[in-house]
Amino acid sequence: MARTGLYALLAANAAVVTVFFLQAGFASNALIVMGRLAGLYAALLMAFQLLLVARLPFFDRRIGMDRLTSWHRWVGFSLLWLLLAHGVFIVFGYAQASSMGPVDQLVDLAETVEGVLRALVALVLIMAVGVVSARYARRRLAYETWHFIHLYTYLAVVLAFTHQVAAGSTFTASATATTYWYTLWGVALGAVVVGRLVLPLWRNLRHRLRVTAVVPESEHVVSIYVSGRDLDRLPARAGQFFLWRFLTRDRWWQANPFSLSAAPDGTHLRLTAKTAGDGTAALRHLKVGTRVFAEGPYGAFTTMHRTRPDTLLIAGGVGITPVRALLEELHGHVVLIYRVATDQDAVLYAELTELAHAKGAELHLVTGPARPDKLAPRDIATLVPDVADRDVYVCGPPGMTTAVLRTLGDLGVPKPQIHAERFSLAG
Question: Is residue 403 within 8 Å of residue 373, measured between CB atoms?
C-alpha cells in the first residue's frame, strides 16, 4: 500500500509539473523546450529522491530500507541523465538560436544568466556522486568515505533549487506554480531534516544508550548488549536493524548497520556482528559503559507483514541475526533452515537449538560448499512440503538470497508471502 502510494504521488506530481509547463508557454526552439521539460522532471525527481532518503518511519516499516535504497539508486541515475539532457538541450538550443558554438554558448549563459553557474556546479557534484555510487567504485570505498562524498548531494540540491528559482520560467509563471514548487521542496527538505536529524537526535537524547556487555560468540563473531532509559518506548521490532556508532575516540565517526539478534524486551538491545574487517574487529574490544548513538530502527523485515499463521525462515551466514530475533517473536508453526559452509560457521546455533525446542519449531542446519545448491526447489520442498502455505522470510548474502527467491517462485509461493532482506544492509 505504501509502495503504491509513493508511485501515485510521483505520477500525480509529474502530471502537475507537465500542466504548469504547458501553461508557461513554449520557446520557439524545440531543443530549448525539451531541455526545460527535462529540467523540470529532474527537479521533481530530486525532491522525490530526498523523500526516499529521509528514512521516515512510515515508509521504512512498510517498504523496507533495502528496497528504498534500491529505488534511490535507480532514481539517482535517472536524475543524472535528465540533468545531462537538460544541460545539453538548453546549450545546443540557445547555440542554434544565436549561431554561437556550444562551448561559447555555455560560457555566455554562465556569465549572463543568474543561477546557471550554480547549476553547473550542482551537475558536477551529482556526476561525482554518481561515479562513486557505481557498483565497481562502491565496492572499493569504505562506507564512511562513500557517505562523506554523498553528503555533497545536499549542496547540489540547494544549488539546483536556487538555479530553478532564478532561471525557471515555469517556477514563476503563476502564483500557483510558485506556491507548488516551494511546497514540494519544503516538504522534501523537511522530511530529510526530521528523518535524518531531528528524530535520531531526539531518540538518542531520550534513551541514552550505553554498552552493557561484549560477548564473543566465536573467533570472528561478537555480540554487544546495549541498554538505556525507557527502551520499552523505543519502537523497535524483531528483524529490524540500526546504524550503530560507538562513541570512542577511534570509532565515533563510523556508522555500521547491524541487525538486532534478539527480540527487543524493553530493557536491552543486542546486536551480533561478524568481525570481518579492521572496523568491525574493534567491536570485540569495546568497553562496558561506552556511549552509543543509534539511528533507527529501520527495516520492513518484521512480523508486521505476515499473511499466514505458519512461517518458514531461511538464513545464510550472519544473516541469521535478524532471523534469530524473528524466531523469538513468531507464533504458529515455524521451520528454520540455516545455510552455512561448515558447522563452525553456524552463529548462535546453541541459542537457536534451545529457542526452537522451546517454541516447537523445526531447525535444519544445511552445510556444504555453495555448489551444488542445497536450497534448490526439491530440497526445500522435501524439508517443508507446505512451503506455499507459509510466510517465508529470507536473509543472507545477496547471491544466496537471489537464488532462494527464484526457488520460492518455482515452488509457487505467492509474492505477498515472501519477505527478504539482504544482509549487506541488515547484517
Answer: yes
User: Cell triple for residue 81?
Assistant: 541523465
Element (H, E) at 117: helix 116-133
Model confidence pLDDT, tens digit, residues 315-324: 998 899 999 9
In one-letter notation, the amino acid at residue 121 is V
Which tens digits make up the pLDDT trace of 341-370? 998 889 899 999 999 999 999 999 999 887
Q: What is the sign of the dihedral through the CA atoms of 171, 172, 176 and 178?
A: positive
Q: What is the pLDDT of residues 181-238, one digit of tens each?
A: 999 999 999 999 999 999 999 999 999 999 999 999 888 899 999 999 999 999 999 9
The β-bridge relationship of strands 391-396 and 418-422 is parallel
Distance, in Å, from the CA atom of 371 to the CA atom of 9, rounded to the nearest integer, reads 44
DSSP bridge partners of 273: 222
Angle between helices 116-133 and 152-167 (to 10 degrees): 150
Give the end-to-end CA distance of the chain in Å, rounded to a whole number: 27
For 94-119, what is each residue's pLDDT tens digit?
998 888 899 999 998 888 888 888 88
Summarize the confidence of residues 39-68 as an average pLDDT.
89
d(CA 343, CA 26): 69
User: What is the DSSP track for 326-380?
Assistant: HHHH--S-EEEEEEESSGGG-TTHHHHHHHHHHHT-EEEEEES-SSS-TTSHHHH
Strand pairing class (334-340; 362-367): parallel
Q: Distance between CA 418 and CA 414 in Å, rounded?
A: 7
- pTM metric for this prediction: 0.84
Contact 255, 244 (CB under 8 A): yes
CA distance 46 to 181: 12
Cell of 226: 546495549
What's at 209, amino acid-wise?
A: L
Contact 411, 312 (CB under 8 A): no
Output phi, psi for 261, to 5 deg. -100, 5
34: left (phi over 0), alpha (psi -120 to 50) or beta: alpha
Closest-CA residue to 173 (of 389, 12, 16, 398): 16
